[in-house]
Amino acid sequence: MGYHTCMRPNIGILLACLLLLTSLVAPSVFAAEQVTAEDFKAMGLAALKEGTSSIDFTLSDLSGKKVSLSNYRGKLVFLNFWATWCPPCRQEMPSMERLYQKLKAKGLVILAVDLQEDAKSVQKFIDEHKLTFTVLLDSDGKVGTIYGARSIPTTYIIGRDGNALGGVIGGREWDSPEMVAFFTRLLDAR
Asked: Are 25 and 52 in contact (CB under 8 A)?
């Protein structure tokens, strides 16, 4: 699996991704989700220790509306950090849209946090690719820094209870039959 990442320019060396990723794999089963750490690993994702809290934030969407991560408590959140200039980010976006279209009715939320770009450039990209999931602007890069998104794309899966379940650095094909089945299991578990 030759996944690629982009390094964000002008960001100090902060390994805050270890904030979440250092508490890696320990649980054999996630109680609420009934998905094992091995299931995450089989999907190429790192499972996080049960009870790893996500960090709430508030950012503006492309229309200027303020959106907080905590607004989505009770939903499964696919939190992705990206930029329009990043080839692996650009490559995975269509598969994210297809995953979203397949599973949004079941409660999947995608929050794509663009790092340090102007709204006009981001809107142009979103329009060109006909993306319908929520795009947020992290114009100063603070949220990306908190989440350790030094290499992008970086994605976290946030459970209905607000805890981070897993994550990955690098682009993926998010709409493969195996990935859709994996996310469906997460969504079906209460």
From this structure: no
